[in-house]
Every structure is written in C-alpha cells, then in structure tokens.
C-alpha cells in the first residue's frame, strides 16, 4: 500500500461504518497477492521525510487500521493470495479471515530492520502474543494451515471455493 491506498481505505471504511443499511463488508484485493505490504517506492520517499512527516504518515496508517478494526459492521478478509508485512496487518484488523489454502503470510519487516509497530496491536490480538513475537522477530513465512492452527484465519478453503465461502458467510452475517 501507499498513501493513496491508505486514504482510500480509511474513507471507504468510514463510509461503510456510517451507512445504515450495510450489514457486513469484505476486504478483498485484485492481483496475485492479497497485499505485499508497503510500496517500496513510497518507503524510499519516506526515508527522506522529517520526523514530523513520518509520524503523520504513521498516524494515517494507524487511522486506516482503526477504521477497519472499529467498523461497526463485521469485516471479512477475503485472502486469495499471499499477505506480507502490512498485508498481515490488514488481515489482522478484520473481524473474520477466510483464506485460500495456498496462501502464505509473513511479517517481513525485520528483514528491513523495521519494527512493525503500527500493525503490532492488531497482529498480536489476531495471532496471539507468543506466535506474534516469533514471527515479528524471525520474519519466517507461515502457511495457511499454520495460520488456521494459530487462529489467525478462521477458515482455509481451496482457491476455487473462496468466493462462495465468503459469500455464504457474508449472507449469514447480513441475515442477523
């Protein structure tokens, strides 16, 4: 993601939250990956930012995650491809995660010498403290089976069943 996507997702989830007739939301992506995290060109530009500019950027990212997490409507993460770094944070901010069984997850920030402080509260809640500590520190990838075992994803399904599974869940949520 980058500053544009952060602004768009924040606005979208604020609108979803305020819309009285919506009963659920699905966070999905296009392309081969769910989300590979922050755009590297954006990160390079941020390296030249002042401390105040970096703090403001971190606050915007935190606000996006908060908008997803605090949305009054249940939010389903439809994870069709790999989720790395901030992409794991996006999944963690959602209420429910359904993933294709071939998906991999990785908190890869340590490889860049970074601490994923902004996504950490969501990841710790969704993954569990001990597992989060391991994956934050090692930057090991873990597969969908492990993610399900740890409770990070609620259900793993064949890729060709992902849309139908998410649709059934969304319908069930909307019926309540």
UniProtKB/TrEMBL annotation:
Q: Which Gene3D superfamilies match?
A: 2-enoyl-CoA Hydratase, Chain A, domain 1 (3.90.226.10)
MF-aspect GO terms: catalytic activity
Stored SUPFAM superfamilies = ClpP/crotonase
Gene Ontology BP annotations: isoprenoid catabolic process
Give start-end ranges for the coiled-coil region(s): none
Q: Which CDD domains match?
A: crotonase-like (cd06558)
Instruction: Give the matching Pfam families.
Output: ECH_1
Annotated family? Belongs to the enoyl-CoA hydratase/isomerase family.
PANTHER family hit by this protein: ENOYL-COA HYDRATASE (PTHR42964), POLYKETIDE BIOSYNTHESIS ENOYL-COA HYDRATASE PKSH-RELATED (PTHR42964:SF1)
The entry's protein name is Enoyl-CoA hydratase
Instruction: Cite the source lineage.
Output: Bacteria, Pseudomonadati, Pseudomonadota, Betaproteobacteria, Burkholderiales
């Amino acid at each position: 993601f980058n500053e544009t996507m952060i602004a768009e997702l924040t606005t979208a989830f604020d609108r979803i939250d305020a819309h009285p007739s919506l009963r659920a939301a699905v966070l999905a992506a296009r392309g081969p990956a769910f989300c590979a995290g922050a755009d590297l060109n954006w990160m390079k530009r941020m390296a030249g930012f002042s401390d105040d500019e970096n703090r403001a950027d971190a606050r915007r990212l935190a606000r996006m995650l908060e908008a997803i997490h605090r949305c009054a409507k249940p939010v389903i993460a439809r994870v069709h491809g790999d989720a790395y770094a901030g992409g794991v944070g996006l999944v963690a901010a959602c209420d429910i995660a359904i993933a294709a069984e071939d998906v991999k997850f990785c908190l890869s920030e340590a490889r860049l010498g970074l601490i994923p402080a902004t996504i950490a509260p969501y990841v710790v809640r969704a993954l569990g403290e001990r597992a989060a500590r391991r994956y934050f520190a090692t930057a090991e990838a873990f597969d969908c089976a492990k993610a399900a075992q740890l409770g990070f994803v609620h259900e793993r399904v064949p890729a060709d069943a992902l849309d139908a599974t998410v649709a059934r869940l969304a319908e069930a949520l909307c019926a309540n």
